[in-house]
Amino acid sequence: MVKAYLRYEPAAAFGVIASVDSNIAFDSSGKHLLAPALENVGVWHVRQGLCTKTLAPSASARGPSLAVTSIASSPSSLIASGYADGSIRIWDSEKGTCETTLNGHKGAVTTLRYNKLSSLLASGSKDNDVILWDVVGETGLFRLRGHRDQVTDLVFLDNGKKLVSSSKDKFLRVWDLETQHCMQIISGHHSEIWSVDTDPEERYVVTGSADPDLRFYMVKHDLVDGQSVSNTNRTDAVKSSDASTQNKWEVLKHFGEIQRQNKDRVASVRFNNSGNLLACQVAGKTVEIFRVLDEVESKRKAKRRINRKKEKKSTKGPVDVTGNGDASHEAGEEGEKPVLTVSDIFKLLQTIRAGKKICSFSFCPVTPKNSLATVALSLNNNLLEIYSIDTSSTTKTNAIELQGHRSDIRSVTLSADNTLLMSTSHSAVKIWNPSTGSCLRTIDSGYGLCGLFVPGNKYAVVGTKAGAIEIIDVSSGTCVEVLEVHGGSVQSIVAVPDGTGFVTGSADHDVKFWEYQTIQKTGEDSKHLTVSHVRNLKMNDDVLVVAVSPDAKYIAAALLDCTVKVFFMDSLKFFLSLYGHKLPVLCMDISSDAELIVTGSADKNLKIWGLDFGDCHKSIFAHSDSVMAVRFVRNTHYMFSAGKDRLVKYWDADKFELLLTLEGHHAEIWSLSVSNRGDFVVTGSHDRAIRRWDRTEEPFFIEEEKEKRLEEMFEADLDNTFESRYAPKEDLPEEGAVAIAGKKTKETLTATDSIIEALDMAEAELKRIAEHEEDKSRGKVAVFQPNILMLGLSPYDYVLRALSSVHTNDLEQTLLALPFSDALKLLSYLKDWALIPDKEYLSADANLYRGYRRVELVCRVATVLLQLHHNQLITTVAARPILTLLKDILHARVKECKDTLGFNLAAMDHLKQLMALKSDALFRDAKTKLLEIRSRHSQRVEARADVKEGRRKKKRQKKSDDVHVWS
C-alpha cells in the first residue's frame, strides 16, 4: 500500500515593513503609503502606522520568490506593481483585489509610470524594452526597442503623446507614441542614467546619473499656429530667433546643470505634485531638496546675478572711457529681460540625512498646511520614515518600525503551547502571535543568536553574540537580568526535558548546565527569575550546536572540527563520536523516541545517524548551500530542513525521501521551529521575514510529487529552449523599433490548445447537424442528440466561449501559435459573430461578449490573423470570399459602434457643462476677480523690484562719478 502524507502550504508572512528591491509610493489620497514587502505590497496608514491592507498574489498565480521590483500609483484608485519575472499586476486599492495580470517583459520590471488620465501605463525592464499598456482594455499596445541596457526610468510628456526613457546605456530616448518611433536620442551623460522626471507643467526635464551634477532640459511641445507652446512663461531662456531654426524633431533642449552636494550616484529624482520642490535621492543616506522658484523670484535672482557681475567688472577694470562705455551698455540693457539660467530657477533648500542607506522616497500628493511638503523614506534596514519639509528645517514626524526587525532574524522559538513566538536579531527581541502575525512586544537586547521560552511562558532566555544570557520578562516586555557567563558567543540553547533548566554551548569551548531559580531583590516586592550554573563540560573546540535527547539520556555537541560528540547526560561520560561531514555541523536534532539524530552541515548534506550505535543510516545531498536548521516533527520520523538556498524541505527519515519543497523566502534562511503538534512550521530569514507554513488536510504521494517536480523543471526551461538559446540575437536599429507587447507563456500555449480543441469539436458537431438535416429531408425522422461536451451551446457559441476565455493581453500570443488551417477555420466564424444583433444574447456564458465588446473582439482577432498569415491568405482561393465578406461587415459594424459611442460621449460632455453652469454660477465672477487681483499683485511686486533696482543703480553710478572726479 502506498503511503500518503499531509501537505504543508504557505500560510502567512510577517515582519517585513519595506523590502529593498522596490520603490515606495503614496496613493492618490496621501493617507496611505504603498511599500514593497517581498512578493506582497503593504498598504500602510501613515498617521496610525498600521498596515491596513496587503496586496498579495493568489496562491495559484504566485510563483516562487517573485519579489516586487516596482510600484506606481495612479491618480485614481489603481495601483501597478511589477515583479522579478517581468509580470505586472493592476490592483484596486479600495477593494484590495487584483484586476488583471499583464505579461510581456522577459526580465524584472524596473520602472512603472502612469499618464495623467491613468489610461496608459508604461513599463521598463531589465530586458532593455519599454512596453506601453492599455489599462482600460487590459492589454499591451506595443513594445519599444532601442536601448542597449536596462531601462531605469520613464516619464510621459505632451499629455501622454510622448514618452521619455532613460537607461544604463547613458542615453535618453524620446518616443512619439502616436507614430511609435524614437524621435530624439540625447547624449551627454558620462555614466548610467538612473532617473528622469518632469515638473507638473512639463516645462523642464531633469536627469540624474553618477555624474556630479543634475542635467536639465527644456521641453518643446507641439506647434500651434507655427509657434511653440512650450515654456510660455519662461521663454526668456531661449531666444526667439532660435525657435525658427530648431529641429522639428527636437523635443528636449539642453538647459544647464546644477552641481550636487553628494558625490554618490543619483538613485531617483522627483518633483512634487505642486511643482515647487525637486528632490534628488542618492545611493547613500541623503536626499537633497531643491526649491523651484517662480517667475518673479527667478527674474529677480537673475538681475542680482547680472548686477554682481557688472560690479565686479567695474571694480576690476579701468574707470575712464571704458567705464563710460560700460555704463552706457548697462543702461542699454536696463530695459531688456535677463536671460535665466538653471541656478536662477533651482535653489538648494534642505538636505535630509537618514541614519541608514535610503532605498527610495516618495512625495505625498497632498500638500500640508503648515509645511511645504511631506516626504516618505524607505531605508535598507526595514524601516519607513516620514519627514515634514519647511523653508528653514526638516523634521521627522513619524517612523514605522515596530512591526519588523532591523536586520537578519537569527532565531525563531515557539512556546510550549504554540501561542507565542520569539525572534532574535542584532538589537532587539520580538514576541509575536504566530497565528495572526502581530508583534506583541519589542525588547532591546544584544545580538541574540538563540532563544528559549521558560516553562510557563512568563520568561524567556536569550543567548547573545557577546557571550551573555539575557532573562526577559515576556508580560512586561523588559530585560530582567543580563548574565556574562561565556567568554565567546552563545551559539546554542536547549531546554532540559524535565523543565528545570537548560544547556548552553559557546565558542569558548564550554557546554554549561543551568537551573532556574526565583529571587527577590532588596527594595522590590515582586520576585523574578534568575539562573544558576550547575556544572560544566569542557570541549576541545568551539561548540556550534547542542542537542539533548527527549529521554534526558544523551547530550550531543557539534564542534568546529566537523565532529559530533555524544555524552551521557547524567555522568557526562563520552559515548559516541559521529564523524563524516567535510565541513562543520551547523544544526542538529534528536527524534522524540531518541532513536535517530540528524545533522546538517555547511557541506550541504544531511546525515541521519542511529543513536544506539552511532552508525550513519543515510547521507543526503539536501540543499544547494549550507544547511542552517533541521527539526524533527514530534512523535514522528519526519523532519524539516532549511538552508541558505532559500528553501525549506520536508523529509521522511525512515525512507530517506524528499516529500515536499517549500519555496517563499527571498534570502538565506537562518532558523526554523516546528510546533509541538506538527501542525505548522515557522522560519526566519535574512530577508527579515517570518513565514508560517500550515499543515493541510490534503494528502499527497511521493511519486506524484516527483512527477510534479519534473514537470516544473520542464516548464521552467520552456523559455530557454535549444532554438532560442542559440538563435542569433536581433540587431536593434539605432532609431529604435516596435514589436508585439506580449510574450509566450504556459497560459498562452494552453489557450491555443483549447481553441484548437473547440474548433475541432465544433466542426464535428456542424457535420452531425448537416447529416441530421439531410436525413430529415429524406423522411428519416430522429431526435438530434447534441454533444454533451459542448455544454448545451451551439458550435458558434462554443468556439466564441473558448476564444473569450483567453486573457485580453494573451490574445496575440495565443493566435500566434495557431496553425494556418485552424486560423482559416476561425476566420469563417467571425462573420457570424459580427452579424449577431447587439440586443441578442449569445448564451449564458457569453453575455460579456455581446454588443461592442463582441465587435471589438472580432476586429482584434481578424486584424491579428491578417497580419500573421497575410502571405498565405492572399494565395489561398478559399479565403477570398471570407475576407470579402469581413471587409464589408466589419467596416459597417465598427462605424455603427463608433457613432453610438461618439453620440454618448457628446451627450455626457453636454450634461457635464450643464452641471458646471448650475453649480458654478454664483462664484464665476468671484473667480474672475480673484485672478485679476493676483495678476495685479504680481505686476506690483515686479514694479517695486524694478524701482528698487533703479535706485541701487543710481547710487552705484553716483559713487563711480565721485571716484572719477577725485581721480
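Second entry:
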Amino acid sequence: MCGKVDESYIPHNYWIVFLEVINIMFYGILGLCVHVLFLYSIFDIYFKSPIIHGMKTHSPPVPPARRLILIVADGLRADKFFEVGSDGHSRSPFLRDIITSKGSWGVSHTRVPTESRPGHVALIAGFYEDVSAVAKGWKENPVEFDSVFNQSRFTWSWGSPDILPMFAKGAVGNHVFTYTYPAELEDFAAKDMAKLDTWVFDQFKEFLLQAKKNSTLIDMVSQDRVIFFLHLLGLDTNGHGHSPGSVEYLENIRTVDKGVKECVDLLSEYFDHDNKTAFIFTSDHGMTDWGSHGMGHPHETLTPLVAWGAGVRGPIGAGRDLYRDGLSEAWKLSVFRRTDVGQADVAPLISVLLGIPIPVNSVGVLPFEFLGTDARQQALAVETNIKQILEHYHLKVKLKRESTFSVFFRHFRDLTPERERELLQIFNILMNQNRYNDAIQVGIKLMQQALQGLTYYQRYDRFSLNCSILFGFLGWLSYLGILIIRDHTSILHKSLEVQSDRAKESVIGIQNLTIGLFSGTVTTIITFLLYAQNAPTMYYLYFLSPVLLWTMVSINWNVYKEAKAYVNHHNYLLQLLGLGMLGILGLEILVISFFRRWMLSLGLVAIAFWPLGTSLKDTDKLLTLTWIGSTLLMAVFPLLPVVGREASYNMVALAGFLSVMITGYCAKRPEIGIAINTLHRKGESNQNALITAVQVVLLIIGSFTIRSTAASIENKEGLPLLNQLVAWIILVILPTLPLFGSPYILTRLLNVAASLIGTYLLLCVSHEGLFGLCLCLLMFLWLCVEHRLSHLHYHLQDVIFLGSISYEQRKSPVQNLTLQDFRRAYFFVFFIFTAFFGTGNIASVNSFEPASVYCFLTVFNPFVMGSLLLIKIMIPFLIVSCAFRGILVTLKIPDKALFLLVLLMSDFMGLHFFFMVTDTGSWLDIGTSISHYVIVMTTTIFVMILNSVASFLTRTTWKLRPPQLKRHLP
C-alpha cells in the first residue's frame, strides 16, 4: 500500500515557476551585459593601450658601450636600498661605493599598477602599459611590442619563469635567450628565499666560465649591442613572506649587493677591463610596509636607479637640491647629484649607451644627465630621441585624423605643425652654433610637448564616450525604475489614469511606432558616422546602448505618468521626497566609506538602533537587545587595522573554537537543529545529524591545521605535506556538505554557515575569522528580525528552501514591494559592502597577502593563489547572500523585485564612481579611483552570480540513500 505523499514537497505550479525563471534570466543577462559594458568602458576611455604599429626606428650616434648588464631587483624599495643602518653602514656597500666614486644615481618613479609585468615593460620597452594589463599578470606577451631586447644583437637573461618569457616571445630572430629556475623554487615558506638571487648569480658566473671554452659563444659575447639581464626575485618573495622591514628582506639586500659585486668583477675580468661595459641597477616596483604592491603609495612607486660604466658620468657635486623631498639628506647622499627619472626613461638610456634604436612605442625621455659623453654627443642622442617620439606622435595624429571627419578634427594646440617646425628649426640652429646645452633644453621641451600631444590624442574621444556612458547609465537606472513600479507595485492598478490610458491604446500604439522610427533613425545615423570614421567595434556598443535603453524607457514612459498621478492623488509627494533624501544619504554613507572605512561603523551604529523605532522593541525585547549588541560588535571591525599587515593566528584559532561551540549549541536547539526533522522523517534527521557532526569535526581539524601550519612556517620548516592535504580535502568536502542537509531554513543556514566559516578560516591570518563569525550571527539575527516584524502566521522553523513551499507558507500570497522592502534592499547592499571593507582586505588592488594561502601552498603560483584569494573574498558575500535568500523565501518576496532594488542602489553608486575615475594627479589617486569603480561594478555582477550560488546552496538537497533490496509481491 502506498504511503501518504508529503504535501510540502509538491511544486504548486511548474509553469509559473518556469516563466518566472525565464523572466529573471532575461533581465539577468541584460543587466550583466550592461554592467560588463559600463565596467569595460573606463579602460577604453581612460586607460587605452598605447601600443601602435607602423613606425620607423631611429639609431643613436656612435655608442660608448659594446655591452650592458641590466640588473632588476624585483620588489626593492628605494629607502631600504639607499638608507644606512643605525651603525652608519650601508646594506649595499658595493653599490653605494659606485654612487660615491664611479657612477650616477637617482630615484626611478614607477606608475600604477606597481606590478612586475608593467614595471618590466616600462623598463625594457619604454612605455607604460594600460592599467588593465595587470589582469594579464604573468602571461607571455599578448601583444607584440618593441623592446631593447628586440633591438639588441644578443640578449641573455636569467631569472623568474614568470617574467623572462614575456620578452622572448615576439622578438625578431633567435637572439633572446632565457634561463629560468623551476617555479617550485618560488616558495614563500622556504628558509632562504634569497636563493632565487644566488641561483641567478651562479648561473651568470657559469655562463661566463663556459664562454671562455665555447668558441661560438665567445664570438657572440664579443660582439657589440649585447645585453645581459639579471632578474632577481628574492627581495619580492621575502617582502611578501616577511615584509620589507624584516631581517630576511634586509639581509637579502646584502646578498644582492654581494652578488652584483662578484658578477661585475667577473665580467670585467672576462673582457680584460676594456671599459666597454655599462651597468644599470634598478627595480620594477617597491612594496608597502606590510608586504604588498599594486597601487601608488610612495613606498611602491619609488625605486632605486644606479648606473655606471661605459658612457655613464661619474659622481658630481649636488649643487642646488632640485627635489626638496628630504630623501637625499635622509639617505646621507646629499653631496652627490641625484637625477630622478620616470621608469620608462631607462629604455632610451639603454638604447643610447648601446647604440641601438629606441623602442618604437617608447615614451621615455632620455635622462641625458646620466651620460658621461661630451655635450655634442648628448645633443645628438637627444636628437635621436626627438625623432623617435615625433615619429610616434605623427603616426598617432595620422590615425586619429583618418578616424575623424576633417570638419570635426581638432589639432593639439600646443604642438601644431607650425609650432613643431619652429621648435625643430630652433634646435637645428643651436646645434649648428655648437650651443649644445641650449639645444638639449629645446629638444626636451619639444619631446615633452609631443608626449602631451600623445596623451591628448589618446584621450581624444573621452568627452563623447563619457557622455555616451552617462546617458547609458541614466537610461539603465530609468528602466530599472520602470520595472520596479510596473511589475512589483500596485501603483498601476490604482492609478486614476489607468482607465483613460487603456481607452487610448491606439494612441499609445502610434506613440510607440513613432518612438521606434525615431530610434531607428538615430541608430542608423550613429552607425553610419562610426563606420565612416573606422571606429573600433566597442564604440558601436558604447554609442548604441543608450539608444536601446532609452527606447525601452520611452515605450514604457506611461508607467512614470501613472506613478506621478498616483503620488499626486494620494499627496505622497513630500513623503516620497523625504524618503528619497534619506535613501540618498544612506547611499552617500556607503560612497564615503570607500575612502573612510569608519563610515561603515557609523552606518552599523544607525542600523543597530533601528529596531527601537519599530514594534519589535515591545514585542521581543530580547531579540532587539541581541540585534543591537551584535551590530555594535560588527561596528568595531571597520575601526581595526587592515588585515594582512600583522598576522595573529591566535585570533584565527579563537574564531575556530567559537565556531565549533556555536555550531554545536545551535544544532541542539529544537527550533534550529536536528530535532526539527523528527517531526517529519527519521531518516532525514539521522542524515542531518551526521552532516552536522562531520562539519564540527572538520572545523576542529581545520583549526588545528591552521595553527600547526603557522608554527611550521614561523620556524621556517615549510608547509607540512599532511597539513596541505588536509586543507585541500576540507576545501573540497566542507562546502558540499550542506547539500546533503535538511531543506528547512534554520537548519540549512546553520549548515551553510558552518561550511563557509570552516573554509574561510583556512584562508585567515588575523581577526577576519572573528569578523566572518560575527557576520554569520548578524545575518541570522537579520532573518529573525525581518520575520518577527512581518507578523507572519507561520513559524520560521516551518519555512523550507525547496522549490515548493510548506502548507503554512501557501496561505500568505506573494507580496508587492513596500517601503520596508526598500529598507531591506539597502541593508543587503550595506552588508555586502561591509563584507568588502569590514576587514579592509580588498580595499585596494595591492591586497595580495600570500600568508592567506599558506595552508594550501607556499610555492608561488599566481593563478592558484589568486583563485584561493577570490574564494576568501567571496565567502562573506555568500554568507550575506544566503541570509538574504532566506529573507526572500520567508517573506515571499519575489527574487527579481529585491534584486532590481539592489541593482538600482548599487548602480547609483556606480555612477558616482564613474565620474571619480581619473588618470591624472598622484598615482595613488589614479589607482584608488580605478579600484573603487571596479569594486562597485563587479560587486553588482558578483551579486548576480552569488544569488545563483546561494540559491544552489540553500535549495539543493541530495539524499544519502542506502542500497535497498527489491521487494516482490506474493
